[in-house]
């Protein structure tokens, strides 16, 4: 590589479309004749994946429109890549035209894709905050909590991030919102009798 | 965290006496199933799937359950629909198909129960996407939910919209979201703001819808009062805002804040605007929305440049006072908000002198006052650095930013070292001298064990090489080359070569550097390295002796590095005389004799590691040496000549020859046209001749001849009893010698090498030698090595005759020589009459 080679020159040459420059999503936007390339928006997570040390997916949140096939392919690729990394390696890697930020908490890997110009360090904080929220909600969370209550893990994430952006920086507010929603859900469920439960109504 | 305990749901999670097998048995009859068997609970299903011992078992459980879920969907059971969908979502996460749940999402969203909606929206986010038209069907439900005023439901709808809302949905629902932007409930409002961000990303034209309310959000904060109805027309609104923001009072405020920030760094400006309704969440969302607007539309960018003082104030307050413990992380108040504001400032200050100046002092303050003991602080600091480097900041501030990155390099957290290296790499062109100051630290990072770090350290180190530090840097880089991970070698080697080419202080240093790269990472250099180095050495006449000796030594140590071997072979061929001369002052005396040189080249030729190109270099070197090394040792060169190929084309040729031997033709096959006609004459001549062949005593061995036939033709091992050479012609110093070889593996074949030498004072030109043999033999003439023999023992001409003699008939040979000598043309025709009997018996 020549001296002074720009580190991200490959990224710069890629077309950047209005739907966040994601290579797979780009075609549709281009076909629709949308706005010409422009500087991409600032922060925004492209997706977040949670998976176990065995490579089992525990949660997937996609903020970019992709087909199921593409999602599976990306997941497989990233799980492999991240699991192959040694524990003492840094938490960032360049992947396609994105940056991957991952962190392992016990048996779970939290893995986020952000854009080239985004701040990896604050993404680590986002991951950490999410783990804290899970921990507070479940009370010392473990992987099994997330397996058996995966929908709750999604609900918590959706109160913390919205469209890939941080929406609430207070842990209390996030948990309060979840509690209220849980309460509403219980109210909706309690009138149901055992008979209802077994389908007799 | 996440490291404790087993299961927490014990008894309550299991339905007694219920198993997966039961489901399978019942599911054939949906009605009965519904009446008798309750549907499996989500957690029971998970339990069962986790209990599966094998992949096949898991598949079986899931297929069974999916059939069950399908049946339930078919029956349209509304009570358990949410549970069935939740199960399906789990199965989906495991990678099984779940598209048949899409319509159920729609039904659940349309339900009035919150539980249904919650799961339904979750399912929509996971199963629907904008590629399928089905997603449009939820547009109406979302519209209803947005306008109904139940906050958690509005929240679900907004969340779904911002996750999977397509351009079409965004266009349809923009008015609803816009209304919610100015809603009193902060919970809904913050979500609406971020949904607006998503909508603008999908449909940039919607910027004009969201700019006015967004401006109002900040304005509201400014005045602490509620806002009026949003105005849809962007243009008129923009003008209105500009008018309002542009009042003299406002301008005074801006100027005042500006002056204030410049003069007093530490003391915060008393907050001129506070609003109880503006929570940090809404502020964060608003900043994000403004960022998005500014990136989309130049008008928005112009507009929001006016609020830079306000943003500066907000950030200053954050940094100096902190919001609340609730929003801070390890002593850094709301790093998420800080980062977002810094990012917006970056966009506003980019290419804009005035805005940049307004934020200069604040950035300096954040850069110096942020607590960097934890990652959160470093994240803020890093964002500050990025902003400083991107706007028109003061020179001193830029140096400060680079120094922060330099300090990052010393951090114990490798993530922080990583971002520092990455950022410095981007700055190395624009702020070269500032980055240059951290060179020792950067070089230190070459020792990182993590390859992603050492790769960046390498790139950065290479970028920092210049003519003043080239010697020191190259030492480090060459040390790195010796120890670096294999996947970095090629980059490192080519980086060193390029830098050496740009900054080499002397030719000798340059040669040494390339040599070092070739010896340590020879297999990783590009092909042109060989050409470059030979070019370089060729052009440095005073270094020929030095180079050839260094290369000879390197080659003696290792013949596996192909580029090195190639350059070395080239140099030995070219400057072999200097190598043997042994009077190079620059390196310790080295006594090399010809035998050693030849042995080394032979080793190269025979090594299985040598590439064909390398063998080519070695052969060429040998040929050059055959002329450059004169004297007794020439014989040694010839003897030492190894073989090139043992089989392949040559074996085929021999097979062909033995086949043809059975049907020897009348005329010998001739290689070239001019010889063909004349050969017929020769044959005529020969036909007349008869009689026994005499066996003359062997003459002096002829040098050079064997070399050529060895190059062209194989013969392993050399014939046990060599046939003596023969001098057949001499006139005015021009001599013709024949040497004979009969390959043991093919005794029918006789190879005669004809060597023409010239010890006279005049050149021999237009030399042609033709030959004829009896009809029972077959003769093939190879192309001669040339047609000129320079005077006074110049390079002789050699030519190879292949004679096939399967019947071991007595050999007779007639030759015709034509050449020009001393400006006279000479023609000689004669029969060689003293051929040794070994040549045919």
TrEMBL record, chain A:
One of its GO terms (biological process) is intracellular protein transport. One of its GO terms (cellular component) is AP-1 adaptor complex. Residues 45-184 form the AP complex mu/sigma subunit domain. This is AP-1 complex subunit sigma-2. SUPFAM superfamilies: SNARE-like (SSF64356). It is found in: Cytoplasmic vesicle membrane; Golgi apparatus; Membrane, Clathrin-coated pit. Pfam families: Clat_adaptor_s. Belongs to the adaptor complexes small subunit family. It is a peripheral membrane protein. The gene is AP1S2. PROSITE patterns: CLAT_ADAPTOR_S. Subunit of clathrin-associated adaptor protein complex 1 that plays a role in protein sorting in the late-Golgi/trans-Golgi network (TGN) and/or endosomes. The AP complexes mediate both the recruitment of clathrin to membranes and the recognition of sorting signals within the cytosolic tails of transmembrane cargo molecules. Keywords: Coated pit, Cytoplasmic vesicle, Golgi apparatus, Membrane, Protein transport, Transport. It comes from the Eukaryota. It comes from Pan troglodytes. One of its GO terms (molecular function) is clathrin adaptor activity. Adaptor protein complex 1 (AP-1) is a heterotetramer composed of two large adaptins (gamma-type subunit AP1G1 and beta-type subunit AP1B1), a medium adaptin (mu-type subunit AP1M1 or AP1M2) and a small adaptin (sigma-type subunit AP1S1 or AP1S2 or AP1S3). Binds to MUC1.
